[in-house]
Amino acid sequence: MENTNYAIETNNLSIHYGNFTAVKGVNMKVERQKITAIIGPSGCGKSTLLRAFNRMNDFVPSCHVTGELLLDNQNLYGKNVDPVEVRRKIGMVFQKPNPFPKSIYENIAWGARINGFKGKMDELVEQSLRSAALWDEVKDKLQQSAYALSGGQQQRLCIARTIAIQPEIILMDEPASALDPISTLRIEELMQELKKNYTILIVTHNMQQAARASDYTAMMMIDDQRAGGVIEFDDTKAIFTRPKDKRTEDYVTGRFG
Questions:
Q1: Rounded to an integer, what distance in angstroms lies between the CA atom of residue 55 and that of residue 163?
Q2: What is the mean pLDDT of the chain?
Q3: pLDDT digit string (tens) for 53-111?
Q4: Contact, 130 vs 176, CB < 8 A?
Q5: Helical spans, DSSP H, in the chain
Q6: Are 8 and 71 in contact (CB under 8 A)?
Q7: pTM of the predicted model over 0.90
Q8: Which of 85, 102, 135, 238, CA to CA, is 20 to 30 A from 58?
Q9: What's the CA gap between 183 and 194, in Å, rounded?
């Protein structure tokens, strides 16, 4: 009987590049319609772990994954699983805004179209832009280049583009690190709206952002073999006020990392 509270689960998930193990033995249960932050020092495998959730690491020829990653009780690394379908269910927003060199409208429509969307495209574009809190700013310039938007607007456009393919989960890799403080807060407010309908996983270097924006936090650290792993996973308040691991306490209070 599947537990409907969890959107995704990992069982002893490890990520290897050739003979090198980059991330080792991760066990996480990610709750539906919550924001889970992944934090830890540079080089501990946060982005590598995040990219494993939608098989982005498949693009690195030497990379292979062991253990299980379960979505709706299906192992996403099983033999008959189509990675393209995985990426439709689990969308990704990258660190730097990366709109397509197309119009604002086509940025939304193109991805939906190649994923077989058959409904009313104008409605999908509007709804996606509304969901990303961008519609009011761009509704009169949908045919203009996406490159004409500010950095913060471009990032919200990339979020709208992800929403348009109707995923279950949205991954965000440092989504605000290239943005100014005002745009950063807009993205954080947007995440709170989006979690009503989506499960969100976010990698962030920003401790205040993790504390403000997330419901749960996974703390990663490197071991003696240079492999990253999750050393503590709990609700965010506990991680920041009552961490069980001394290394977590040192990191979140700024004494390490």
A1: 18
A2: 93
A3: 999 999 999 999 999 999 988 999 998 999 989 999 999 999 889 999 999 999 999 98
A4: no
A5: 46-52, 83-89, 104-114, 121-131, 135-138, 151-164, 181-194, 207-213, 236-241, 246-252
A6: yes
A7: yes
A8: 102
A9: 16
